Amino acid sequence: MERISIPLQLRVVQSQPGLVEQNGKWSTGLCECWGDMDDCCCAFWCLPLFVFKTNRAAGGCPCLPLLDCVGCGTAASLAMRAAVRERYGIEGDVCSDCFYGCCCYPLSWCQISREIKRQAAVRANAISLSSSKTHYTPLVDLDHVHLI
């Protein structure tokens, strides 16, 4: 019986798909609500629901938005804005998060929502591109081989 030699090809993942160069800036400005009118309208007509929805999409504690409702300042806004900045490498500090949370509360939540959506879309696009480039080679070439 003849032994078949098969070349082994290994693919090494050197970086995770979907990581985005952010350049330390938000993908949209604070007042760029026209880019996502659904979120803008939802935030305008029912801000508590929008805050809860955005907090949930970001993976935050479900009870965190309740702190804003009971008058504990803007704890949820501050925490979520800081978490999103940290996760995506966006420049800023606690003072700017507090300022935007206090003075531009609905706009800040809309910006957080747009950033989460953009990062998710970029990650999904990168994953689909990397999976479409994958070419599998068969383990054994069975041409002209009799199994029995």
TrEMBL record:
Belongs to the cornifelin family. PANTHER family: DUF614 FAMILY PROTEIN-RELATED. This is Cornifelin. It comes from the Eukaryota. InterPro entries: PLAC_motif_containing. The lineage of its organism: Eukaryota, Metazoa, Chordata, Craniata, Vertebrata.
